[in-house]
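Quick one:
INPUT:
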């Protein structure tokens, strides 16, 4: 795909699926690299979020790895090994496992989740540099309409 400053007409003719795929991979790689620099992985953060009653957990109850994978189905990547990532968090004392194999967030894990969440605005700011909110909103609305146009749920 050519990226050499095409005209607006040239850009309008380019396939959205290609560019959304390139954007997705670049954004995930950037986000994960920043998180790795800070000492954690995106799947580890998601595990903490999905086990915290103060975040994504609907009830704060423990969950098994398969239950967590199902809860994260719309965003976890195929290469993400939630069992291995949970072992790291168990080793850090951020999770515990009960006799039924359910993972539970610990007090230290909740503190870590809160601390890690503070990194999100800086990562977002780096990604959004040079893009004003109005343009970003327009881009999202366009993508949502394309999703609806193709039978997806936006």
């Amino acid at each position: 795909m050519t990226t050499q400053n095409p005209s607006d007409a040239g850009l309008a003719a380019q396939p959205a699926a290609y560019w959304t795929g390139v954007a997705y991979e670049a954004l995930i790689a950037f986000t994960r690299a920043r998180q790795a620099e800070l000492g954690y992985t995106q799947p580890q953060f998601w595990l903490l979020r999905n086990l915290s009653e103060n975040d994504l957990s609907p009830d704060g109850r423990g969950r098994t790895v398969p239950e967590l994978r199902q809860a994260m189905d719309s965003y976890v990547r195929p290469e993400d090994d939630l069992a291995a990532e949970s072992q790291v968090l168990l080793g850090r004392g951020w999770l515990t496992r009960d006799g039924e194999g359910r993972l539970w967030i610990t007090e230290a894990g909740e503190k870590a989740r809160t601390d890690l969440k503070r990194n999100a605005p800086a990562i977002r700011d780096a990604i959004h540099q040079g893009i004003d909110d109005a343009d970003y909103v327009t881009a999202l609305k366009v993508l949502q309409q394309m999703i609806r146009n193709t039978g997806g749920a936006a």
